[in-house]
Design a protein that fits this description.
2 copies of one chain form a homodimer. Chain A is an alpha/beta fold and about 280 residues long. Chain A has 2 domains: about 5-50, Spermidine synthase, tetramerisation domain (Spermidine Synthase, Chain: A, domain 2); about 60-275, Rossmann fold. In chain A, about 25% of the residues lie in helices and about 30% in strands. Chain A has 8 helices and 12 strands. In chain A, helix 5 (about 170-180) packs across helix 6. The longest helix of chain A is centred in the first third of the chain and has 15 residues, at about 60-70. Chain A is globular and about 55 Å long. Strand 2 (about 15-25) of chain A pairs antiparallel with strand 2 of chain B. Chains A, B: Pfam families: Spermine_synt_N, Spermine_synth. Chains A, B: Pathway: Amine and polyamine biosynthesis; spermidine biosynthesis; spermidine from putrescine: step 1/1. Chains A, B: It catalyses: S-adenosyl 3-(methylsulfanyl)propylamine + putrescine = S-methyl-5'-thioadenosine + spermidine + H(+).
């Protein structure tokens, strides 16, 4: 007998994969949490039946959400991560020696707990002396923060369940207030094949609040369509103006100085979403 | 009741999608051919249970296999397509006004026949006065051709079934002989997540025969991993030296002059396959 999981990425399309065992299967206070041992991608975390991360391809998402904004800012010291309970984003942020403190606000303690247990290479940086983990609501934390952060990373789930409030114009305005006068934020903003309107709205709202607003992409095989987007909003520094020579080696598997620039070059149908 | 197809892209991972009906299901002389009407991607052609093309995302593959080499060559006149029986590649090639003749060698007449019937927007250029369609073996045609083509496009299936001979060093040597002294070829070379060795071999073999050998990528949601690669071999012209101002608008949805360059900027783990 062989057992396969299926994620319906839309009403009529999805991915399917062979699993060796179900490691966790729990309704937490906030969402459905599943941890699967898959044959192809190693251990896999799903929230509300959507793949969040896997051991084999997690490096793409985590390198790209962290290093693009952190190398855009000339000297990021205070960083906020909203969500990101698996720990991959904080792991990448800590590779930047300028960073003095990373505050992370994750709503669901169970995500942290099970990531520590089943995704040890992803969650390896929890407990680092430069990190502070707050179990709570990211939106509330942002509303209470003023002129505080150099970089804010919104490492959320899709806009259903607990993350629904994270894709609104009010949230982006709150982020702008929580950032310093030369601050930068980035948010994961799904894929252009199945969620064109989400991207159109995210980039439009970001443009209304930040002088610099740009979209960049990467390839994640376990995410819908394989193409993922991030929306970056910046008060001062343009990610396209970064001197490649200022980018140090982060010992990664995806991000490079050349890819930093190239990831902003969009296919025409994606460009059209940003007009 | 709802009916879903599944393509196993590896032994333990795949895609699945809802279908409205099975349009064709036939064992041809060369391969298993299925044409499905899918809910998400429109009509979909599968050969030997692998997705070849769909109405909704075909533009990516066809624009990227055609325009990158055809804009790299300053004046492509004679073009050969090996495979490509759905017609999408020839449709894109004919957008180049310099092209005088496109010879296409497709081994399986049934692919052409059913594409004309069920993929009319893809197969729209069969019968154009600049095209010659030969039903036959592409390898044989190349062996018999000397110093004949400006550009050769290998628009094949994966290296199983009738296309097995198309991923060998002997094939690349034959292509070099069939090309003129400043000729260019491109071949689809699968994805770096599940087929790393195939890419490593393709780029190594191409480097041994062509002075310029490069890999470029694009995003195709219905292909394994969502990231697809093409290997380009060129006797004289470097695809990275193309003047963007020489690239005219091809009225597409994916390819742009900026993306021409950016598609050659590889993630680090893909770069490593090319060393």
């Amino acid at each position: 007998m062989s057992i396969w999981f299926t994620e319906k990425q839309t009403q009529s399309f999805g991915i399917t994969g062979k699993i060796n065992q179900i490691l966790e299967n729990e309704k937490t206070e906030y969402q459905q949490l599943d941890m699967l041992e898959t044959e192809q991608f190693g251990n896999m975390l799903l929230l509300d039946n959507m793949v969040m991360t896997t051991e084999k391809d997690e490096f793409v998402y985590h390198e790209m959400i962290a290093h693009v904004p952190l190398f855009t800012h000339p000297s990021p010291k205070k960083v906020l991560i909203v969500g990101g309970g698996d720990g991959g984003t904080v792991r990448e942020v800590l590779k930047h020696s300028s960073v003095e403190k990373v505050t992370q606000v994750e709503i669901d303690n169970k995500v942290v707990e099970y990531s520590k247990k089943h995704l040890p290479h992803i969650s390896s940086s929890f407990g680092d002396s430069r990190t502070e983990l707050i179990i709570g609501d990211g939106f509330d934390h942002i509303i209470k923060s003023n002129n505080k952060y150099d970089v804010i990373l919104v490492d959320s789930t899709e806009p259903v369940g607990p993350a629904a409030g994270l894709f609104t114009k009010g949230f982006y305005a709150g982020i702008a207030k929580a950032l310093k006068e030369d601050g930068i934020f980035v948010a994961q903003t799904d894929n252009p094949w199945f969620k064109a309107e989400l991207i159109r709205n995210a980039i439009r709202d970001t443009k209304e609040i930040f002088p610099i607003a740009r979209l960049y992409t990467c390839n994640i095989p376990t995410y819908p369509s394989g193409m993922w987007t991030f929306t970056i909003g910046s008060k001062k520094y343009d990610p396209l103006d970064v001197d490649p020579n200022r980018i140090s080696d982060i010992n990664g598997q995806y991000y490079t100085p050349e890819l930093h620039q190239a990831s902003f070059v969009l296919p025409k149908f994606v460009q059209n979403l940003c007009k």
